[in-house]
Structures
1.
Amino acid sequence: MTPFRAWPDPRPPGLPPPTASAPYADELRRLIIAHKENARYALARPLGGVLATTVLSALGEGRGVWLCPVPSARRTVRQRGHDPLRRITKAAVRTLRRQGIDARLADALRLVRRPDDQAGLSAERRTANLAGAFAARSRWAERLTDQPVLLVDDVITTGSTLAEACRALESDRIPVLGCAVIAATRRYSASGS
């Protein structure tokens, strides 16, 4: 897999540069769903390896990074029996550290309002649905000031979730370098235009 810039089309305002490892299709799609929905915990390690490759591409020449996963609703985590993205992010951190990158997990976001289900919503409706859904955890503001921070998620569709998460961090003066995701749906423009 060769990571690529995965700008959604249309691009939501405030979205930092998103990097994905592959299109959300075929075997990768099945692996993400099996880990997320069927609690196939062992898949966190290979998916974390894919995410680590994406992080390296998004990071460029940097040697240190804080990875901030987009949080899931507590109810969703309880229903699944685990927090898939956090598990994958932890695996990515371990992989990156073995490669000499000073990677760390930053649980700097919290969900303050549970948005409606996003399935079937247009890009504009997703943006409206997510407005104000996230907030930065204040104890992270000082720690992450002037640090390289990447938002991470499993899949980027319209980019609305990542744009809102970025807004929440930056409103607390936590600058976001970019986004790293495992996969991108076909709603992207690889050219970045």
2.
Amino acid sequence: MTGSDLVPMDTQTAIANLARRHKAAGGVGMQVLNMVGGRAENLLERLPDPVKLGLEGATERALKVALYAAKHSRGVVPDQKGWLNTALTTTMGAVGGAGGLPTALAELPVTTTVLLRAVQGIAAEHGFDPNDPDVLGDCLTVFASAGPLAEDDGANTAFFSTRVTLTGAAVHGILKSVAPRLATVLGQKLAAQTVPILGAAAGAATNYAFTSYYQEMAHVHFGLRRLAIDSGQSETLLVEDLKRAIKNV
């Protein structure tokens, strides 16, 4: 008997919907790759060596800025609709791409902050408290997915099973854990933004793809958590059912 044999039909329907949402998350990213030319793994080769070497450190710093800014802005700036987050980051991507690599690098922590706030807002939509250390840890682990420009090799489902509590002692550890994968993803973003001639258009399209992707992945992640709570089913089994459903979409 498999996990899916134990899951009620309405829960299976919900999992199927989450699987379709997961598949849709990367669709825009493939359009970006077609626009800028080449494959995701080749984009990083377009970056200067000093940028590639410093990418992980820059990503970790961007995450720290995002974590601090998101935490202190929640009481001042309300959560925004998904389309508004996408519009904002798309505009920032255009500005970053228009100025080449220097402005794209400067835009990085700002976009990361907006993305983290968007993920926190989606957690709240699903009934979770974004200020809860467990939930905030979950918000950060959403960034551990493979990214919108990557082929689905299973890496963008592994984070569903990850659980961290963002206590003071754990902050450094989770940032160190998330930063390497996110650095690869953001390196692809930077490279796409600095494609000659396309510039601002590539930057806008890339940020659109990234924002759409992480918002969809957050809906899948927190939707699955909510489903486990509401259905009383084991979250571990639901994760396995979701992985199977994704393969069949």
3.
Amino acid sequence: MSYDTLRHLADSWGLVFMTGTYLTFVGWAFLPRNRTRNRDAAQLIFKDRDHG
């Protein structure tokens, strides 16, 4: 394979693959079964906070 062939492959199908991967990860985060984990992760920084 030449450089031009690899470049063309990366420009076309690489972008499709990266977009699909991004959408999969974003969709995974919004699944209803992950709601509790996401809420716990958002509140983690307040775990050891003083209330005084």
